[in-house]
Amino acid sequence: MSVGVASIGGVGQDLATPLWQCSGEELLCAAREIETRMRRDYAVLLDLVAELDSRNVAQEQGYPGLPELLRDVLRITRAEAKRRIGHVQALLDVRLVSGGTVQAPLPQTGQALRAGALGPEHVDTIGRSLLGLPSSVGPDQRAWAEGILVQAAADLDARALAKLGARLRAELDPDGTPPSDNELAQPCNELRFTAKPNGRLAFRGELDPEASALFQAVLSPLAKPRPSSVEGPDPRSSAERYGGALVEVLSLAADTGQLPSEAGEKPHLLVIASLEALRDGLHQALLHGAGLLDAASARRLACDCKLIPAVLGAESEPLDIGRISYTVPIAIRRALILRDGGCAFPGCDRPHRWCHAHHILSWAEGGPTDLANLVLLCGPHHRLIHHSQWQCAITNGRPEFYPPHCIDPHRKARRNTLHPP
């Protein structure tokens, strides 16, 4: 496809050049010029919107207001129409009937938009940073802060600019908007979640500033990237790392034993599985509150849990319920901590508090609950061992791990050297 692009072949030239014949540098240059022109055109559009508003054209055309008129004429949403009207009010001077003018709140931003140096998203960010400041912030301070943001917008996208804007606003108005007595007494913290058919949970919410700081402080050390290994750096995205950190916080909280009881029991996961599912891995289990669970996951959960044997009748009615038994007694777990120090998987530095006791030969297959058949593994590596071709063995009293052929064709044994013995 051929497209006429200004200045692709040189300054001031208009050439209808096929894109595939252009160099990468020429394409980038053309993209920058088009973006600059779009920003300048947006400034002209704001002039038109201001003129429409000053003439009350919306009322002349029978519309209740200018947003509704712009929605129909430009085929944009009402929210977008109101956004552009807000830009007009922030960037353009207002002509008074008496003949005078009222200066725009953000004159430097308006000039930069006309020059194509920043775009509508930058305008949003600068407006959120500087509009609505208290009267104690004088015009000179506002102009100083706006100049800094306009200059920075030449090099930053709107998201990065917002961080600078937040710092400037905090400097200009360190006290911020004082919360009401009711907000101080009862901070608004919200969490909404919905269970999906596949058992996953989708949620969103909002925390007050103090709770937000605590939330980030708790998750941050758990969400840091794992150390690089022979497979390369941690492949997880930031969202995946923080999701994993949240799960670990929940596990740590549940393991403290200090959470309040519900229906006479501490918070726990209830998994219902047949002996065949645990022994042979052929049937699904039931995870209470989340639905069906594959047998491999049930076997992983059975590594370090409380077991309650139950005898069922022909119609699956309970005939006998046994007592709770612990698969890994406290004394043996302490010995594991002394031996492994933390997660024994090669290259993992997670402490023992975050680890499960994994049965190398599964408990359901008759694997004994002793040091020669147990190893400490953090949650991610426990799942990896159960759901991949990695294998583990105890050699000379120490756990060794054997990678799959796809990682090491020779399957050379690996040990964790990060935890002191």
Characterization of this structure:
This protein folds into three domains: 21-172, no CATH class; 190-255, no CATH class; 328-421, no CATH class. The protein is built from 15 helices and 17 strands. It has helices at residues 24-54, 57-60, 66-74, 78-91, 107-114, 120-130, 139-152, 158-172, 181-185, 209-223, 238-255, 275-280, 295-301, 330-340, 379-387, and strands spanning 2-6, 14-18, 94-95, 101-102, 190-195, 201-206, 271-272, 285-287, 291-293, 306-307, 310-312, 318-321, 325-326, 355-359, 374-378, 391-395, 398-402. The strands form eight sheets. It has a three-stranded antiparallel beta sheet. α6 (120-130) packs parallel to α8 (158-172). The longest helix has 31 residues, at 24-54. The protein is elongated. Mean pLDDT is 80; it is low at 1-7, 9-15 and 319-323.
Overview features:
421 residues, alpha+beta, 3-stranded antiparallel sheet, two-stranded antiparallel ribbon, 15 helices, 17 strands, 42% helix, 15% strand, elongated, disordered N terminus
